[in-house]
Amino acid sequence: MNNKILILGPCAAESAAQMDAVAVLLKDVLHAAGTQYEQVFRAGLWKPRSQPSSFQGVGTEGLPWLIKAAATVGCPAATEVAQPEHLLAAYEAGIRQFWIGARTTSNPFMVEALATAPIEDKQSVTWYVKNPTSPDVELWCGAIERLQRAGYTHVRAIHRGFALGEHTASAYRNTPMWSVPIEFKRRYPTVPLLTDASHIAGSAGRVSEVAEQAMRMGMNGLMIEVHNNPVEALSDAEQQLTPQALRELLQHIAQVGAAANTPSGAELAALRQQIDETDDELWALLSRRMDIARQIGDYKRRNGLPVLQQARYDELLRRRIRWAQEHGIDPAAAKQMMDIIHEQSVLAQL
Ligand code: PEP
Ligand code: MN
């Protein structure tokens, strides 16, 4: 896992001309970026769109365009497959890298059908499994295991964030919830884990910051959507980068990588010591809070009061969210933490 993996290309294959155009531009950008990356060229042929009236992808017609474009760039081609028919058609055409999209990972029947489809040379295939749309690490791991059990050994994962609706204060299209890929990495330390900065960010202007976060976190690579003419793209127009924007992003990432490799041993050890001590204090406080909750539980029992008093919790939450905003803490994260603390407190009172 030395080289970082870079999966680049348009959201979708739209026409032979568009694929030729993006491939020629990408080739130049990658040439300038050097060889410190394992490169893969992506384009979706079968697009899982929320609305049936949206562009659904060109299907098998785009297979030769994809293969030609990847050859121009000089790297393997990858595409999304959701059904055995997609996989078999792409494999037959010579494609050997496939990703399972978030909506498909969410469905174990579909993952099983892909894992058990009759592929002759499984060792020649590389799979990428995107996280499911909900923050369910079991479902994500289950998909990885289905592929491994079916005999695939080149299995990688892609973090593309989570659809949590309008309840989160996330500035991105998908909430990253970094705790989920961190847990994934803890369970599968040897499975390369990439970040799909484009689908997390949702807008071209924010892709670079997500990519930087991923690199600083030590992720093994990036998936980034690039289009020759993003404004005219038939899908995900807002988030696709121009080749020039990609060039700038790669320069930025290379600087982040260089800074991350600078040794800082003693300073880091001292800061970690402080973190450990702060955690000790934090947990001592949480334990004191639980003791108080148990005493409140006794009081409510003696006086016939209900354990859950919604108005009181609303008030606590409001105060904490305001505090978080004033102290530069993500209010959505503050709410999540407060919800867990409150739930534990309610359980202790019961
Ligand atoms: C994609 O990569 O084009 C895609 C549809 O991604 P996701 O499954 O992450 O939404
Ligand atoms: Mn897309």
User: What is the number of helical segments per DSSP (H or I, 4+ residues)?
Assistant: 13
Give the % helix: 40-55%
The set of bound ligands, ions and cofactors reads: phosphoenolpyruvate, manganese (II) ion
Q: How many domains? A: 2
- In total, the number of strands is 8
CATH fold title of the largest domain: TIM Barrel
Main β sheet profile: 8 strands, parallel, barrel
Strand order of the largest sheet: 1-2-3-4-5-6-7-8
Structural class: alpha/beta
Which architecture of the largest domain does the CATH hierarchy give at level 2?
A: Alpha-Beta Barrel
Tell me the fraction of residues in β-strands, as a range.
Answer: 5-15%
Average per-residue pLDDT, rounded, comes to: 93
In whole angstroms, the N-to-C terminal distance is: 49 Å
The CATH superfamily label of the largest domain reads: Aldolase class I
Task: Return the CATH class of the largest domain.
Answer: Alpha Beta
Word description of this protein:
The protein has 350 residues and is α/β, with parallel strands linked by helices. It folds into two domains: 4-261, TIM Barrel, CATH 3.20.20; 268-349, Up-down Bundle (Chorismate Mutase Domain, subunit A). It is built from 13 helices and eight strands. It has helices at 16-33, 63-73, 84-93, 102-105, 108-115, 137-149, 179-187, 197-201, 204-216, 243-260, 265-302, 310-326, 331-349, and strands at 4-9, 37-42, 77-80, 97-100, 126-130, 155-159, 193-196, 221-225. Strands 1-2-3-4-5-6-7-8 form an eight-stranded parallel β-barrel, surrounded by five helices. α1 (16-33) links the parallel β1 and β2 (37-42). α1 (16-33) packs parallel to α2 (63-73), α1 packs parallel to α10 and α11 packs across α13. The chain starts with a strand and ends with a helix. The mean pLDDT is 93. Bound molecules: phosphoenolpyruvate (PEP) and manganese (II) ion. Manganese (II) ion (MN) is lined by residues 11, 225, 235-236. Manganese (II) ion (MN) binds next to loops.
